[in-house]
Amino acid sequence: MSYPSLQLAAASAPQTPPHTGGLLALIDGTAGLLTVAAIGIALLLFLIIKVRLQPFVALLAVSIAVGLLAGLSVTELFGTVQKSDAVSTIESGMGGILGHVAIIIGLGTMLGAILEVSGGAQVLASRLLGLFGEKRAPLAMGLTGLIFGIPVFFDVGIFVLAPIVYAAAKRSGKSVLLYCLPLLAGLSMTHAFLPPHPGPVAAAGLLKVDLGWVILMGIVCGVPAVLAAWAFSAWIGRRIFVPVPQDMVEAAEEAKQAVVEEQRASGVEPRETPVALGTVLGIIGTPLVLILAATFSSIALDESTLRSVIEFFGNPFVALTIALFLAYYLLGIRRGWSRKSLETVSTASLKPVGNILLVVGAGGVFGAVLKASGVAQALSDTFNDVGLPVIVLSYLISLVLRVAQGSATVAIVTTAGIVAPLLAEGDHSQAFVALVIMAISAGSIFASHVNDGGFWMVAKYFGISERDTLKTWTVLESVLSVAGFVVAAVLSLFV
Fold first, then answer.
1. Could you list the residue ranges that cross the membrane (predicted)?
2. Is there a contact between 434 and 217 (Cβ–Cβ < 8 Å)?
3. Are 142 and 186 in contact (CB under 8 A)?
C-alpha cells in the first residue's frame, strides 16, 4: 500500500533556477535562491511572532512572496481563467496535501469526540488507577495520557483529564506535578509522533510515506521518549510542590455541568452505564492494527486476494471509518444515544479543525512553491555540501522553527517542505523517511515556552507559576524531543 502521491507543481525541479524574472535575478542563481529562502523564513517568523498574523495567512503570504522573488510568474502561481489547463502551484500544493490529510484528521477528530463525550477517558483513567494503586497513580495517569492521547487532541485531553489529576493529587496530598506531568508527557508524545494527529499525518503526506510506517516508527521512537519524560516527571515532582488549584477544581466542575447541559440541549442525554475498558481499548486500537497490517502485507505476502483485502481494510480512510462506526454503535447507539445525538457530537467536534487544516494546506503550498521555483533544490544542494545527515538536519530545522514561533504544526509542515528534495534525491526506504518524520516531529516539540499556547494551557489548568512551568513543562518537552530524536537517529543507522 503506497501513500497517494502529492500532485505538487513542477514535480521535477531542475538543478538550476528555471526562472530569470525574479527580483533577485541579478544575483548568481544558487546564491539568489538561498537569499530568497532566508528572506522567506525570516518573513514567516516576523509575521507570526511580531505581527501576530494567523499562521495560515502568514504561510500563504510568504509562499506568494517567495514564489515572486524566485521568479515564478503570476500564471505559474495562480493559473489563469483563460487557460484552464495552466498549472496553479498554489492550488496543487493546497489540494495535494489536503486531499488525504483532511479526511484522516476529520475522521480521527470525530472518533476522539465520541470517546470523550461517552466517558471513555474517565473509565480508562479510573481502571488504570485502580489497577496500579495509589503508589503508582502517576504511572496510571501517564498511561491514560498515552492511550487516550491517540484519538484526541492535546488540549482536549487536558480538558477532559485534568479533573482526574486534581482528584488523585488531592487524595495523596502530594504535588500536582507528580500526576499532571506524566499525563502531559503521554498526550504530547502521541500528538507529536502518532497519526491521526495533524503533524505526523501532514509530514507523511508531504514526504509520501505509508501511514503504517509512521505509526510503527512513532511507537518505536515515542515509547522510549515518554519513558524518559516519566522519569523526569518523577524526579521534578518530588522537588517542586504545586498544590491542587482549587479555583480550577471549581471551574472544572462548572465546565462539566455546562457540558452536560449543552449535551442535553442538543439531545444527548448523559448515560450512567459505564463504558467497558475493553471497548475503549478495542476502538482505539482497531485503526492502528488495520493500518499496520496493510503496510506489512506488501512485504510478507505476494499479490493475492488476501493481500488486497488486508490493504483495503488497512487503508487509513477505511480503517478510521470502521473505528468511527464501532464507536457510534458501541459507545452511542447501544447505550441509548439517538442518531441525532451522534450527528450533533460529530459536527461540533469538527469546528476547531478548520484552522489546523488551513495551516497544513498552507504548508503544502509553501512546499510546492519552494519546489517549483527551484529554491528547495538550492537548499538541498547547500545542505548536501554541509555534510550533516538529513535526519540531523531535519531535527535542527524543525527545532529552530518551533522555538522561534511556537507552533509545532507550522514547524513540521515548513521543515517537511524544505527537506523533501533531500529525500527525493536518494533511494531511501519508507522506514528511513518515517524516521526522518520522527526527527521533524521531535524537533517540533522542543522547549515549549511563552510563545506556545500549550505552555499557558498547562500553567493555567494545573496552577503552576510561569517560572515553575519553565522548570517543569518546558524541560519535559525538551526531554521528549531529545529522547525521541536520539532513538530515531540511532535507528536510521540500521535502516
1. 21-49, 55-75, 139-169, 176-194, 214-236, 275-300, 312-331, 352-370, 390-419, 431-450, 470-494
2. yes
3. yes
412 three-state secondary structure = helix
Count of alpha carbons within 13 angstroms of residue 71, beta-carbon side: 21
Count the Cβ atoms, other than its own, within 10 Å of residue 211: 29
Report the SS3 class of residue 99.
Answer: helix
Instruction: Give CA separation, 159 vs 17, 116, 196, 202, 252, in Å.
Output: 49, 10, 19, 25, 8
Question: Mean pLDDT for each consecutive 10-residue tract of the chain (495 residues)?
Answer: 36 41 53 86 88 90 90 83 68 86 92 87 87 90 94 89 89 93 96 93 92 96 97 95 82 62 60 77 94 86 86 94 95 85 87 86 87 81 81 94 89 89 82 97 94 90 93 97 98 92
Report the first-to-last Cα separation within the chain, whole angstroms. 19
Give me the numbers of helices (H) and strands (E) for the chain, helices first please. Answer: 23, 0
Rounded alpha-carbon distances, angstroms, from residue 331 to 248, 264, 308, 354: 29, 17, 30, 26
How does DSSP assign 2-14, residue by residue? PPPPP--SSSS--
DSSP annotation of 474: I
Half-sphere exposure of 278 (CA within 13 A, CB side): 0
The dihedral built from the CA positions of residue 150, 151, 156 and 159, taken in this order, carries a sign that is negative
Residue with cell 487524595: 171
Lookup: cell for 359: 495551516
Closest CA to 146 of 108, 184, 181, 105: 184
Q: Which amino acid is at 403?
A: V
CB 215 within 8 A of CB 288: yes
Element (H, E) at 321: helix 316-327
Directed axis angle between helix 390-405 and helix 375-386, to 10°? Answer: 120
Residue 366 CA to residue 351 CA, distance in Å, equals: 25
Go through 23-49 and write b for each residue having 16 or more CB atoms within 10 A of its CB, e for each that does not: ebeeeebbebbbbbbebbbebbbebbe
Cα separation, 476 vs 245, whole angstroms: 21
Cell of 397: 530545522
Contacts of residue 56, Cβ cutoff 8 Å, sequence gap at least 6: 355, 358, 359, 361, 362
On whether the CB atoms of residues 328 and 114 are closer than 8 A, the answer is: yes
